[in-house]
Specification:
Number of domains: 4
Strand content: 25-35%
Distance between the termini: 170 Å
Number of helices: 1
Largest sheet: 5 strands, mixed
Length: 299
């Protein structure tokens, strides 16, 4: 391949007139001039037209283009690889940060839950012979709410709100309670089992045993100090709505069925006790039979 040397001429940039060497202004139009190369790189590619099979040197033409085209491809592949790596590393880092942050929040919340005290019960769980008024409390009550259940389930924000003493009646009652602070932090659960078995009052005792007697007399009835006595003399079973015993009962001639029941301050009733008295009319000169612990009535 042969090349042709480049010749340089001073030409006017505006009108194209040749400018003699050493001149810096166009003598024709007066414009300032600059060096313009009169050179075409394609002229360096020679084609031997005398040879029938002669072909232009395509390697010389295509090689620069091939190198220029292959370079961007290499750069593009590298950029893709680096970008993918950064994307993977960035995603993994984000996951780690999020996981650690979430785990830290969970650990903090769990630690705070453990630090909150359980609600306190005014009466210790156990067995009792009377009903209870159970009071629930918490040291931070002003900043939260106490929730409770009586059916054995775990309490939460949808359970009963504690607003006052809970009445524990006869039977078995399981109380569960939690304290939930206004910011949603929940305490540990407190629970207690209460068994209430009422003791029935002592049965009434009559001063005169049942039997047959001559002449009228009085009968007294006694029971426990914390019980009231109610009685009937018409054969009906007494309850708390019957006649209340306040003093000796007169037993007159004839058949008397005396029944009595004791009722304590919690309205628990004893068993009903019954006595039957058969009293004869006194005839002239008939001696009076006075039962023990009773007082006769003078006819």
């Amino acid at each position: 391949m042969t090349g042709r040397s480049a010749s340089f001429h001073m030409k006017c940039q505006k009108c194209g007139t040749d400018i003699p060497e050493g001149k810096i202004y166009c003598e024709k139009c007066g414009s300032a001039i600059q060096m313009v190369p009169d050179y075409n790189p394609v002229d360096d590619i020679s084609i031997d037209t005398d040879t029938p099979d002669a072909q232009p040197d395509m390697e010389a033409i295509s090689k620069p283009d091939t190198e220029e085209q292959s370079q961007p491809r290499k750069i593009h592949w590298k950029r893709w690889a680096v970008g993918t790596l950064l994307l993977v590393l960035g995603g993994y880092t984000t996951y780690q940060i999020a996981y650690r942050s979430f785990g830290s929040v969970q650990e903090t919340a769990e630690a705070e839950i453990i630090l909150l005290e359980k609600p306190e019960f005014s009466t210790s769980p156990g067995c009792y012979t009377h009903s209870l008024q159970l009071i629930l409390s918490h040291t931070d009550r002003a900043n939260g709410v106490i929730y409770y259940t009586l059916d054995g389930s775990t309490p939460d924000a949808d359970s009963s709100v504690y607003n006052g003493p809970i009445t524990i009646e006869e039977g078995t009652t399981v109380v569960h309670a939690v304290f939930i602070r206004n910011d949603g932090v929940q305490s540990e659960e407190a629970d207690g089992t209460y068994k209430v078995m009422f003791e029935t009052p002592d049965e009434p005792v009559f001063s005169v045993p049942e039997g047959t007697y001559n002449g009228s007399f009085y009968v007294t009835i006694r029971a426990g100090a914390e019980s009231n006595i109610y009685y009937t003399t018409n054969g009906e079973e007494p309850d708390r709505y019957a006649t209340r015993y306040t003093g000796p009962i007169q037993i007159n001639p004839g058949l008397t069925v005396l029944q009595a029941v004791a009722v304590d301050y919690e309205d628990r009733e004893s068993g009903v006790v019954e006595v039957i008295y058969r009293v004869n009319e006194l005839s002239e000169n008939q001696p009076v039979s006075i039962p023990a612990d009773s007082q006769s009535i003078t006819p």
